[in-house]
Each structure stands twice: as structure tokens, then as C-alpha cells.
Amino acid sequence: MKKTLTRLFCLALCAVMLLSAIPAASAADGDYIAAEHTPDNGSPYYIMVNRSMNTVTIYTVGASGYYDVPFKAMICSTGRYGCTPLGTYSLSGWKTLWCHMVDGSYGQYVSQFYGDFLFHSVCYDYPDPSTLITEEYNQLGSSVSRGCVRLQSEDAKWIYDNCPAGTRVTIYDGTVTGALGQPEKAVPEITAEQDNGWDPTDPRADNPWQTQRLESITLSHAELLMPAGGKAALLPSYTPVAPLAKDVSWTSSSPDVASVDPNGTVSANSTGSARITVSCGSVSASCTVTVVEPSPFRDVAIDAWYYPYVKYVSDQKLMIGAANGLFCPDGAITRAMAVQIIYNIAVEPSERVTAEGSGWYLPALEWVTEHGLLDGIAEQYLAPGHEISRQEFATLLYRYDAFTHEHVPSGVTLDGYEDAGEISSCAEEAMRWAVEQGILKGVSSTRLAPNGTMTRAQQAAILQRYMALN
Questions:
Q1: What's the pTM value of the predicted model, to 2 decimals?
Q2: What is the pLDDT of residues 403-429, one digit of tens each?
Q3: CATH assignment of 34-205?
Q4: CA distances (Å), 412 to each of 196, 255, 390, 396, 401, in order?
């Protein structure tokens, strides 16, 4: 019979076995996600625990070869007073179905990540799934443990079943819950009338929660954008409680585009669109999955506004990335970059002259100088590291375009922009042309910011718009 004594805290010190694990590295503070910066080490997953938000986010390896694909999220309880240790660790491989705690309670589906610190379920009075300490289940999402990471039964079991020894674990304090947010508990609060001694998520067939009639299913995403080759988990929420896994089915309208396994893990196979549906009896929910080509750069997410522009300029070899597979979308465009971009537009890749080292832009500079494109901009000295202004680049592009197209003076007036008076005389016609063609857009409905600089992402958008005209 289940004990009625209330425990304020479940001591997360294992009395059966005390094993130690050595931290692999220190965790970074804030919202730096270590998983996204870690290359594939052979383990299928990377576990991120946001201590301050009591959320676990599981990442898997994406097309980039890094653990940058959010896969699964879990609500948890970490240590009160911050006693769950910050840092990066690895699962030791020591696991046990039930673990006897020093206060006499028990946790199930136990996985060790550092010394006496464990992932495990909410505590029980006995090693019996019908003896749940209900008030501790109700406290999930709060910092109430003595250092371990407490989870719902099905989440603890998932880590127990799917995360082998060597799986990296980072404990950090972040200001947001995580890439997938913090899921709701299966039951927001188990009332005295509902209390039957079981964790509502326990997958055992004799769990009395499983016999309750399913009313609705809600998926974590109604729409999902994925790169080809990527994986993502659709997380279902059930009302009033999750059914047995054997009663749930997952289907895809176009498996060649996106397939789905029995656990709701979606695999993006080829570009296109597919509808993923989860069903249980007469109740179902769906998500539209759109698969696009993978991003060519690690710091350009496929859902970023500038992704299609960056993808285009990369494919067309108009712009290249920085080191280490990065594009640096928020970086500024310098004069050296600008002349190289104009040169890249004008000359086929196979015919371009290249140079190494700090003078990488010199062949491009020679070409644009020879064609008079820098007149009035940088006639004597380029100042290659100087950030180029919006009107200067518009002038470069306008002068280049005049080589291949007959220009009729633009009839567009810029008087509607309050900063039109800041446009230099040598750039005025170019700015009118760029605005008329839709290449250059205002930073607002009343400002063109002619002396402002451009980010690399903005530059990619301008290039794509220009190339679409020709």
C-alpha cells in the first residue's frame, strides 16, 4: 500500500553504488548551446539540461555533422539552491532499473552522468511503479531535487533506452527554455481524486492511466521546415493522458519526401512537402513538413529570412563563407568584399583570377578600377577594410549593369525619403535606379539610409534581386 507520508525532497544520492565521472569540460553560461558546436562523436544524441528553466533538450546530428538538430524536449526538476553541477559530462554507462536512495525512496530508469548525479524518474516509496510519491510528480518543472535531474517516467526511460555510455551531457543556466520549449507534464497536477499511485506516463500495460479515454492529440508543430537529410521529433500531447505506444500510429503522405518512425521521429529525405499524421483510434493530429536543401553554412538556419538568398549566392559562387563553415550573416560588407562581389558577377568562376593571402581581392580591384567603377568612390586608395555604404555599393552595381544594359534615366523620385538629401551627387542616379528596380529597399518607409552599411545577409538579398532581373 502506498505510503501517505509527504517527502519535501527526494535525496538523489544512490546508496547502492557510488561511482564517479570526470567532467569533460566546463559549460558556458547563458544561452550558448554546446551541442550545436560539437562535432559528431559517435553517440546518437547530446543532452542539454537548462538548469534555471528545468528543461532538457535532446539534440541529434544534422547534415552539418554537428549536434545542431533539436530532437526531443522534456520537463524536469533540477537541484534546489543550484546544487545540480554546471559543466559538460558524459554518461558513464552505469544504469539500473531501480535505484535505492539514502532516504529510503526509489527512482527508476536511472542513468549516471557525474558521480552521484543521475537522470531518473520522480521518486517512489518502493521499487514498485504503483507507489509514486505524487507530490514530487506535481513539482516537476521546479528546482526541488538534491542535485539529480528528475523526469517523468517515460522520459527517464527514453534516456535509459536510447543514450549509451559516452553520450555528452551539458548542464547550463539559460534565459530561454530551449529550442523546443518546455513540454507540459502529461497531467498538469495529479489531484487527490486522480491519485492512483502511478506516473501517468509509465508505459507499463497495467498503468491505470492508460485506460482513460483519449479526447485529443496536439503536436508540437503544425508546420515544420527541415533540411534534406535532417531528423526531428514531433512531440504529441495527449488529453487527458498518453495512450500506450502500441495503440498509436504514425503515417506520412509522402514517405519519399519525409518519413516517420513509430516514435514520431521524422526523417527528411528529399525536397518537397509531406503531411505527417499521428492517430489513436478516431483521434488524430497532423503536421505539414516542408523539406528544403541543407544550408551551406552552419550559422545560416534554414528558417532564417536570409536563408534562400545566402543559398543562392553560395550556389552561384557570388559570395563565399568565412572560415570553419560559417557565413557570418550579421557581418558588415567591406570595400574589398564589394569589389570581389562585382568581379564575381562579371566573370565566370572558371575565368576568375585568384590571389592568396591578404591581397586576395587585388585581381577584383584591378578589374573594377580598369572599368572605372570606383571613380568618385575610391579613386586613389581603396581602404579595403572600410565598410562600404549602401549608396557606394548601389553605385558600383549600377555602373557594372551599364556595361550590359542600356540605361534609360530613372523617373523615380526619392523625395518621399526624409534622408534623400544625404545621397551624394555621384550616387543619385544609381540610388534611383536601385530603388526603381526593387534591388535596394528602404530601411523603413521613410528612410533609405544611403550612408548606412550592409550586413552580409542583406548583401545576399540585394544580389539575388539583381540577378533575378537579368
A1: 0.65
A2: 888 777 777 889 899 999 999 998 999
A3: 2.40.440.10
A4: 75, 50, 18, 19, 18
